[in-house]
C-alpha cells in the first residue's frame, strides 16, 4: 500500500474534508495604506487586543505579590516579578483538607484524558468504518438517534447514567468517567470518521475485498494507515474537550479523582480567609495551559477539527 | 422467504458486533435515558427514584419556584443576546478577515484561542477582570471618574451581562471560523457581478451573500443554541449563581436538585423542561434541513 498514488489519494481525500479556509486568493490590493485598510486593520487590531487582554491579565497577576495587587489594578504590569504564586498554586494550594495544590488535579486529568481519548477514538472510528463501508439494515436509524442525541441537553441523561454506572459497579471510578466521555464523544466523532471514510476511494475497499481481507483486516491495514490526519483531528478535539470538562468530572468521580478543572474551581471559589488572587490566576493559567499548547501547536488542524465537526455533511 | 430472514440477520456479523457500542449508546443511553427521565419527572422521587406517579405536581412546583423562573428568564436573556451578538460579531469579523488581508492566520489564532479554554478558566478570568476594586471599575474610577459603576458581579440587575461578556469572549471565535468557511464557499463571480452592477459592498453582503449563507447560519444557530441551554460551568465558576439568584441557570438548577438537594423529581422535571426548550429550536431545524432535502 505504500505506492505514491495511494498517498496522493489520501491527500486529496484530506483536502475534500477541509473547508475552504486555505488563505487569501485573488488579486492583490494595490496600496498598502488606504482608508479602507486602516479601518480593517484598525478594527482587527483593537479586537485582537480585547481578546488578548484576559490572557495578559492572567499572566501579569500571577507574577505579582499580594501587596502589589492590592495597590494597583488588574492591568498594571508587575514591578517585582515573583514565581512564588506558581509554586504555591502547583504544590501548596488547599482544597478542603488536601493542601497539595493543583498537581493532584493535573495528574488526575492526565489519568482521565489518556484512556478516554484512546477508547473514545477507537470505538468511534470503528463505528464510523462500519457505517461507511459495512452498512447493515437499521444502521442509519441508530446513527440518526446518535446525532440527534448530540443536541439533547446532558442534564436529561445524567441520572440514568448514574444508575447504569452503579449497576455495573463503576460509579465514582476512573473507568466510569472514561465510559461517560466515550458515550458523549461518540456522536461527533462517529460523524467525523464516517464522513472521512466515505470520502476515501471505494476501489481501495473493493480491491482489498477481492484480495480476501475481512472487516478487521481492511480496518487495520488500509483504513487506519490512510486516515492519520483525521485521527489527529479527532485527538485534538477529544483532548481539549475532555481536559476542559467540568460537569462529568463532578458527577461521575469522587473528590480524590477530581479532574483539574474541578479542583481549580474549588481552589478559587471556596478559599476561606484572604483571597490570594495571584495564586488563583497562576492556577487558572496552569489549567488552561494544556489546551492552549495543543491549540497553538496544532494551528490549522484545530480549526479543521471544529469546522469538520460543525459544518456537517 | 422463510430462509431469507435469518440469513439477513447473520450477514455482516463483524460490522454488527463493531457497531454494538453505537447501538447501545443510541438506544439505551440517549433514547432510553431520555425517556426514563421524562417518565420519572411525573413521580415524587426524592432521595432515590421511586415509581409513584403524582401527575404534573413536579411541574407545578417548578413553575411556582422563584429560582426556576429566574433561571429560565436568565436563559432567555442570555440566549437571545448571545445568539444575536455572537452572530453579528462573528459575521463582521469573518467579513473583515475575508478582505484578502495580511496576517490572517495571526488574527484568527488570536480571536479563536479562547475557544480552546474551558468555561471554568474563562469564568475565573472574567471574575477577576470584573472585580470592582481592582478590575475595570477600579481603573475607570482611578482615572478620575469617581461615580463610574460597572460591577456585574455584585449588582443583580446587570449580573447576567457579566456572564454574557465572558461567554462572548469564549465563543465568538468559533462563529467567526464557521462564517469564514461559509464566506469562502461563496462563488467569486457573485462579487464580480455585484461590482459590475455597482452595488455597494454592504448591500451585497446584506442582500446577496447572507441569504446565500443560510445553511451556514442555520447550523451555527443550532450549535450555539444547544450550547446555550447547557450553560453551566461558566456560571458556576464566575458567579456561582449569585449575587443572590441573579445568574442562576436551568442546568445549574437541575444539578443542584439532583445531586445537591436530593429532590430528584424536581431535577427530572427541570431537565425535561430543558429538553423541551431545545426541541423548540431543534424540530423546526430538522424540518427545514430534511424537508428541504426531499424537495431538491
Structural features, described:
Chain A is mainly α and 313 residues long. Chain A has 15 helices and no strands. The longest helix of chain A has 31 residues, at 103-133. The two termini of chain A are 28 Å apart. Mean pLDDT of chain A is 83; it is low at 1-18. With 296 residues, chain B is mostly helical. Chain B has one domain: MetI-like fold (Orthogonal Bundle), CATH 1.10.3720.10. In chain B, 72% of the residues lie in helices and 0% in strands. Chain B contains 15 helices and no strands. The longest helix of chain B has 32 residues, at 66-97. The model of chain B has no long low-confidence stretch (mean pLDDT 86). The chains are: A mainly alpha (313), B mainly alpha (296).
Low-confidence stretches of chain A: 1-18
Number of helices of chain A: 15
Tally the beta strands of chain A: 0
CATH homology-level superfamily of chain B: MetI-like
Strand residues, percent of chain A: under 5%
What's the overall geometry of chain B? Answer: globular
The top-level CATH class of the domain at 4-19 and 102-261 and 277-310 in chain A is Mainly Alpha
Uncertain ranges of chain B: none
Layout of secondary structure:
The complex is a heterodimer of chains A (313) and B (296).
Chain A: H1 4-17, H2 35-62, H3 66-71, H4 84-91, H5 103-133, H6 139-149, H7 155-167, H8 174-199, H9 202-210, H10 215-226, H11 228-244, H12 247-252, H13 260-269, H14 277-298, H15 300-310
Helix pairs in contact in A: 2-14, 4-14, 5-8, 5-11, 5-13, 6-8, 8-11, 11-14, 11-15, 13-14
Chain B: H1 4-10, H2 13-18, H3 20-40, H4 57-63, H5 66-97, H6 104-112, H7 119-129, H8 136-142, H9 159-184, H10 188-196, H11 201-212, H12 214-230, H13 233-238, H14 250-260, H15 264-295
Protein name (chain B): Sugar ABC transporter permease
Transmembrane segments (chain B): 20-42, 75-97, 109-129, 158-183, 204-229, 268-288
Keywords (chain B): Cell membrane, Membrane, Transmembrane, Transmembrane helix, Transport
Amino acid at each position: 500500500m505504500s505506492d505514491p498514488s495511494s498517498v496522493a489519494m489520501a491527500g486529496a481525500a484530506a483536502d475534500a474534508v477541509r473547508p475552504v479556509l486555505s488563505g487569501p486568493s485573488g488579486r492583490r490590493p494595490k496600496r498598502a495604506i488606504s482608508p479602507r485598510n486602516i479601518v480593517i486593520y484598525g478594527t482587527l487590531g483593537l479586537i485582537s487586543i480585547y481578546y488578548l487582554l484576559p490572557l495578559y491579565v492572567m499572566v501579569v497577576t500571577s507574577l505579582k505579590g499580594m501587596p502589589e495587587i492590592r495597590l494597583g489594578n488588574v492591568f498594571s504590569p508587575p514591578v517585582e516579578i515573583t514565581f512564588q504564586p506558581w509554586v504555591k498554586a502547583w504544590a501548596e494550594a488547599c482544597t478542603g483538607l488536601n493542601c497539595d495544590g493543583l498537581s493532584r488535579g493535573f495528574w488526575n486529568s492526565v489519568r482521565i484524558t489518556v484512556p478516554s481519548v484512546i477508547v473514545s477514538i477507537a470505538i468511534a472510528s470503528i463505528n464510523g468504518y462500519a457505517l461507511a463501508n459495512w452498512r447493515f439494515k437499521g444502521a442509519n436509524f441508530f446513527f440518526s438517534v446518535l446525532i440527534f442525541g448530540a443536541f439533547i441537553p446532558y442534564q436529561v441523561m445524567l441520572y440514568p447514567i448514574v444508575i447504569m454506572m452503579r449497576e455495573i459497579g463503576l460509579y465514582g471510578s476512573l473507568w466510569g468517567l472514561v465510559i461517560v466521555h466515550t458515550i458523549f464523544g461518540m456522536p461527533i466523532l462517529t460523524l467525523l470518521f464516517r464522513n472521512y471514510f466515505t470520502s476515501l476511494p471505494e476501489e481501495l475497499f473493493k480491491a482489498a475485498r477481492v484480495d480476501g481481507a475481512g472487516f478487521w483486516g481492511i480496518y487495520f491495514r488500509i483504513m487506519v494507515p490512510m486516515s492519520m490526519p483525521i485521527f489527529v483531528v479527532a485527538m485534538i478535539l477529544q483532548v481539549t474537550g475532555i481536559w476542559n470538562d467540568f460537569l462529568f468530572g463532578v458527577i461521575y468521580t469522587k473528590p480524590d479523582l477530581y479532574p483539574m478543572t474541578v479542583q481549580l474551581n474549588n481552589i478559587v471559589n471556596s478559599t476561606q480567609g484572604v483571597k490570594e488572587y495571584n495564586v488563583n490566576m497562576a492556577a487558572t493559567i496552569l489549567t488552561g495551559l494544556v489546551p492552549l499548547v495543543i491549540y497553538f501547536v496544532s494551528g490549522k488542524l484545530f480549526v479543521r477539527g471544529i469546522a469538520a465537526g460543525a459544518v456537517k455533511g | 422467504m422463510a430462509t431469507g430472514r435469518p440469513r439477513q440477520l447473520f450477514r455482516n456479523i463483524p460490522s454488527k458486533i463493531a457497531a454494538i457500542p453505537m447501538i447501545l449508546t443510541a438506544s439505551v443511553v440517549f433514547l432510553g435515558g431520555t425517556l426514563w427521565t421524562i417518565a420519572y419527572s411525573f413521580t415524587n422521587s426524592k432521595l432515590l427514584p421511586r415509581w409513584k406517579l403524582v401527575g404534573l405536581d413536579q411541574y407545578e412546583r417548578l413553575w411556582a419556584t422563584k429560582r426556576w423562573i429566574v433561571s429560565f428568564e436568565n436563559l432567555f436573556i442570555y440566549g437571545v443576546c448571545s445568539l444575536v451578538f455572537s452572530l453579528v460579531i462573528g459575521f463582521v469579523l469573518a467579513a473583515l478577515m475575508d478582505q484578502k488581508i495580511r496576517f490572517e492566520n495571526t488574527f484568527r489564532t488570536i480571536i479563536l484561542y479562547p475557544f480552546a479554554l474551558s468555561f471554568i478558566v474563562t469564568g475565573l478570568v472574567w471574575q477577576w477582570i470584573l472585580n470592582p476594586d481592582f478590575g475595570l471599575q477600579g481603573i475607570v474610577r482611578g482615572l478620575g471618574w469617581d461615580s463610574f459603576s460597572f460591577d456585574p458581579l455584585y449588582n443583580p440587575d446587570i449580573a447576567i451581562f457579566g456572564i454574557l461578556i465572558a461567554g462572548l469572549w469564549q465563543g465568538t471565535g468559533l462563529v467567526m471560523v464557521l462564517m469564514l468557511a461559509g464566506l469562502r464557499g461563496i462563488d467569486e463571480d457573485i462579487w464580480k457581478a455585484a461590482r459590475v452592477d455597482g452595488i455597494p459592498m454592504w448591500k451585497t453582503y446584506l442582500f446577496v451573500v447572507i441569504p446565500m449563507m443560510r445553511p451556514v447560519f442555520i447550523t451555527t444557530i443550532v450549535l450555539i443554541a444547544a450550547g446555550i441551554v447547557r450553560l453551566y460551568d461558566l456560571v458556576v465558576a464566575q458567579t456561582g449563581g449569585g449575587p443572590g439568584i441573579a445568574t442562576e441557570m436551568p442546568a445549574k438548577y437541575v444539578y443542584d436538585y439532583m445531586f445537591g438537594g436530593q429532590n430528584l423529581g424536581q431535577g427530572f422535571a427541570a431537565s425535561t423542561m430543558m429538553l423541551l426548550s431545545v426541541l423548540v429550536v431543534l424540530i423546526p431545524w430538522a424540518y427545514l434541513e430534511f424537508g428541504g432535502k426531499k424537495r431538491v
